[in-house]
Amino acid sequence: LALALALPSVALENGLARTPPMGWMSWERFRCNVDCRADPRNCVSEQLFFEMADRLAEDGWRELGYEYINIDDCWSAKQRDAVGQLVPDPQRFPSGIKALADYVHARGLKLGIYGDLGIFTCGGYPGTTLEHVKQDAQTFAAWGVDMLKLDGCYSSAEEQAKGYPEMARALNATGRPIVYSCSWPAYQGGLPPKVNYTILAEICNLWRNYDDIQDSWDSVLSIVDWFFTNQDMLQPAAGPGHWNDPDMLIIGNFGLSYEQSRSQMALWTVMAAPLLMSTDLRTISPSAKEILQNRLMIQINQDPLGIQGRRIVKEKSHIEVFLRPLSQAASTLVFFSRRTDMPFRYTTSLAKLSFPESAVYEVQDVFVGKSIGALKTADNFSVVINPSGVVMWYLHPMALPVQ
Predict the structure, then answer these.
(1) How many helices (H) does the chain have, and how many strands (E)?
(2) What phi, psi does 233 have (nearest 5°)?
(3) Which of 8, 64, 295, 353 is the most buried (most CB within 10 A)?
(4) Alpha galactosidase A C-terminal domain: from which residue to which, for each copy (predicted)?
(5) What does the alpha-carbon distance between residue 27 and residue 44 come to, in Å, rounded to a whole number?
(6) Is 89 assigned a catalytic role?
(7) pLDDT for the residue numbered 50
(8) Which residues, other chains included, contact 174 with Cβ-Cβ below 8 Å and sequence gap of 6+?
């Protein structure tokens, strides 16, 4: 409490995103496909968002916490209207964003939208320059928007330093609870001293630190490498209300194998990352759906303590171990193989992984869902990890050492 009182008056404390936001986002899968004549089913249009809202509401996603339907770039008309207001493309969003928000809300879901702090969005649509910040915040609130992702194409470092905090104030001033996702650090290289994560956590609910994800294992690995190489600087920045965002889940698309899909889900969960899927929920495979709807995984991701996990072991054998502390003295371990040859038997003990001496844990396999039984800190154990795959454990203390 003393620490909270000592902080300067915070721009954002909006009480939102106490756990990492979960939902669906259009960008990675549908990009800036605006050709509704040639490709009506996959173009960025209200129809796409109506259909994804139906899928979230009817296929078991909403009950698990996937509640945001997020529009990304290329939704607006190419010009603002006569009074300078952003307007949706009249052909692709004929009902308007307010009607889309109402549709989404009627299904117990929330609507996210995209803006860009610059003269244009990354896709070349009207941006939010400094003189439009207040107006756009009011427009989004009037439409019933629940989350804003503010990108940073076509803006200078000075404009970003001014504009991102200004938008936080403008969103708060609307009186509507709007989760605020910033791309600010990604445009400043993502690391201190250029990025001040203490200030960022007071301005934004989540932020993109690094490159956009692509539909490939190489892309997932590059993100994992960057986040865990820089974990000493990034990990302390995350917590309830303010999250590092390694970008969307691409599970269910074209670029990841089954093992790699499980690995992305496990590693994003260890990172306390937002779980924003970008895949076609109308045609998703049962195996991809099973990974994304894993209840124990989601429970771990949404742990109320909100501590981001860390890589604690990097072996010459290309096995890595990640640990995330959870509430009630529980934790999760991920054993990850970067090998490309065959399943690898990895032997270690909880003692080697810095667990408290003489404790006993009940171990559950997160993917299989079964309890593996009791494990003492000193016991050696082995896990068999498939190439580019993971074994993920949830550990709950049965007996802790006396302090």
Answers:
(1) 14, 16
(2) -90, -35
(3) 64
(4) 306-389
(5) 9
(6) no
(7) 98
(8) 137, 138, 140, 141
Instruction: Tell me, letter by letter, the H, E, C secondary structure of 169-205.
Output: HHHHHHCCCCEEEECHHHHCCCCCCCCCHHHHHHHCC
> Tokens at residue 83, please?
């009074």
Judge contact between 118 and 129, C-beta under 8 A: yes
List the strands of the sheet with 360-365, edge to edge.
Answer: 310-314, 319-325, 331-337, 390-399, 360-365, 371-376
Confidence category of residue 402, pLDDT binned at 50, 70, 90 = low
DSSP states along 143-154: HT--EEEEE-TT
Tens digit of each residue's pLDDT (9 = 90 or more) over 22-61: 999 999 999 999 999 999 999 999 999 999 999 999 999 9
Reported as a pLDDT band with limits 50, 70 and 90, residue 282 is very high
151 is annotated as an active-site residue: yes
Please name each of the domains of the chain with its CATH number: 22-302 (3.20.20.70), 310-397 (2.60.40.1180)
Sign of CA dihedral 185, 388, 249, 292: negative
User: What pLDDT does 224 receive?
Assistant: 98
Catalytic residue among 151, 245, 247, 303: 151
Per residue in 52-110, pLDDT tens? 999 999 999 999 999 999 999 999 999 999 999 999 999 999 999 999 999 999 999 99
Burial of 354 (C-beta count, 10 Å sphere; 0-12/13-18/19+): exposed
> What's the distance, CA 136 to chain centroid?
24
Mean pLDDT, the chain, whole residue set? 96
Catalytic residue chosen out of the listed positions 59, 102, 211, 212: 212
